[in-house]
Amino acid sequence: MNKLLPIICLALLCSFSATAQYSSYSSPPSTAPPAKTHNQVLKVEEAGDQGLKLYSKTELQQRLAYFSTQSWEALKAQAKTQNKPFFVAFETPWCRVCKKMDHEVYARDRVANYARNHFLAYKLDGEQRPDVAQRYSISSYPTLLIFDQNGSEVKRIIGATTENQFIEVMKQFSAKVPHTKYSSFR
Predict the structure, then answer these.
(1) Are the C-beta atoms of 147 and 85 separated by less than 8 Å?
(2) Interior CA angle at 111 toward 115 and 74, to 5°?
(3) Which residue of 53, 114, 146, 166 is surrounded by the most CB atoms within 10 Å?
(4) Separation of alpha carbons 148 and 57, rounded Å
(5) Which residues are bridge partners to 74 per DSSP?
(6) Top-level CATH class of 67-176?
(7) How far is it, in rounded angstroms, from Cα 151 to Cα 120?
(8) What would the pLDDT profile of 110-151 be if each residue is shown by its tens digit?
(9) Do residues 114 and 158 touch, judged by C-beta distance below 8 A?
(10) Start-to-end C-alpha separation, the chain
């Protein structure tokens, strides 16, 4: 037993020092910024010339007010009677890219002004209206469809797009002003 005592003590000492070494080790202090709350994320932020801008919920709702809230069927009838093309943003509540498009494309002044003057705009939740989503073979979100005034699809954009790209596409399919003797003044 006397011969085992030093070995046992040595083993206990080694295990104690190893345990003390690891238990006293602490990770370095975190340099990551604190997590943002929901309200902070939606606060207006601007970044350089690119103008990355996130709007508050209230401001976003006001900026997106040009999207029609009527039924799908009423939208198609209105497009026909007003002889105006329309676009439909197919999205879902869980789609993060859709929310990004709201802030970075649809809520922008240039897009909103152009859309108000030349299009009818509509948002459609693909999960709430699966019949419409299936009719147009919507398989990913966001998907943007542009229709002529007769309800025929003329353009499809799948995924995110930029403000400038969206304006260019809208210009291709906007309602044309009839040619008159004053057309040269445009």
Answers:
(1) yes
(2) 30
(3) 166
(4) 31
(5) none
(6) alpha beta
(7) 12
(8) 999 999 999 999 999 999 999 999 999 999 999 999 999 999
(9) no
(10) 107
Strand duo 120-125 + 143-147: pairing = unpaired
CB 85 within 8 A of CB 146: yes
Phi–psi pair at 68, nearest 5 degrees: -70, 145
The structure's pTM equals 0.66
Contact 53, 103 (CB under 8 A): yes
- Please report, for the chain, the start and end positions of each structural domain, with discontinuous segments joined by +: 67-176
Structure tokens at 5: 């005592």
Q: At residue 88, what are phi and psi to the nearest 5 degrees? A: -125, 125
Look up tokens 């009677």; give the residue.
81
Rounded to whole angstroms, how far apart are CA atoms 161 and 164? 8
3-state secondary structure 95-163: CHHHHHHHHHHHCCHHHHHHHHHHCEEEEEECCCCHHHHHHCCCCCCCEEEEECCCCCEEEEEECCCCH
The predicted-structure confidence for 33-71, as pLDDT tens digits, reads as follows 444 443 333 333 333 334 567 889 999 999 999 999 999
Residues making up the chain, counted from first to last: 186
Place of tokens 């900026």: 63
Q: What are residue 158's DSSP bridge partners?
A: 143
